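User: Structure please.
Assistant: Input sequence and predicted structure:
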Amino acid sequence: MKFRKCGSLRGELTIPGDKSISHRSVMFGSLAKGTTEIYDFLQGADCLSTISCFRSMGIEIENKGNCVLVHGNGLHGLKKPDSVLDCGNSGTTTRLISGILSAQNFSVTLTGDASIQKRPMRRIIQPLSQMGAKIRSIQGNDCAPLEIEGTHLHGIHYQSPVASAQVKSAILLAGLYADGETKVTEPFLSRDHTERMLRSFGAKVENQGTTARILPAEELYGQKLRVPGDISSAAFFLAAGLIIPGSELLLKHVGINPTRDGILRVCRAMGGNITILNETSEGEPAADILVTSSSLHGTVIEGAIIPTLIDELPIIAAMACFAEGDTIIRDATELKVKESNRIEVMVRNLSAMGADVEETEDGMIIHGGRPLHGAVIDSRLDHRIAMTFAVAGCMADGETEILGAECVNISYPGFYAVSYTHLTLPTICSV
């Protein structure tokens, strides 16, 4: 896929459903009694992997496109799959389902693609084992494939060394089945979709500061859900709208959960013109977001805000190249264990485009204001890297080619078509 500098962006855009919420809606609906109706479900490869896994465990799931119906079998209604559960490229599926599987009355092997088999699973193996789970890395390298033998679990209070919603969620889901209460304390608060959604399904979950607490559940009950647009996907258009002159974009019904909205705070800190409209607070908070082109300046991104924008840091780094002054990203070691090492990949590719950027142990320093030029970009089959450089290519001189560009289907199917068709983008891209 090749990109050239484009004109102003103007129009309205509906962002595909939130990936994190889509995953959880299928998982929790499968464990609930009755039918869960899910509207605006994300039809990306990762979320489809979650559907596939639960179908393999006897859950009837009707995928009608815009609406997904999950006919739950109750908290103890999962069945042993006939074969290995394949999570594809989805770290969320792998880690969250491990918490559920640890408490079942059957054994299962959990695997995924080559990328998943390199991503760290010790961070869930360790706390789940403390709860009594029988879970091991088959290759002995603390990565998938994982062998999980369901067993009786007991509650623990886990002090997590990382602020990770996936780690927290795996433990809380195991806690649904455990004896006594289960608590997770994080160094900073990670996204809280699991807690919010489990409460709506009938679980007893509380949050106090950076500690989440859950009590064993007798039953969960099916719900009717509308998934808001994914702010991680909206982020690419937020950035494009800010840095491309003469732009004005309205992004419709985007999730603005305060544990996920860090990018909005960073954009404003950089001088970005962002207006929140038509805010709703029913279920997950959502709103329309109006973004207009702005003169940006550098900022420092660190500490407690990092978990609220960890997935958006690649596009923030690209956006910082077009800001005056320095932008410093710290405390972002988690970027190294995503679909790629996003610190290394971002620094390498931005440098290839002429940016002045330095890699640090836990982030990067971007010296903004240097013009970018086209380059050949290796996405490393990382969806957020591919979309980041699609945006950067729209502001760079010459032609930018993205290798492995199709990987965007993991989280944003049709990203390129939407960009080209629904917005005023003369000569945005070509195959």
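Residues 19-226 form a domain with the UDP-n-acetylglucosamine1-carboxyvinyl-transferase; Chain fold (CATH 3.65.10.10).
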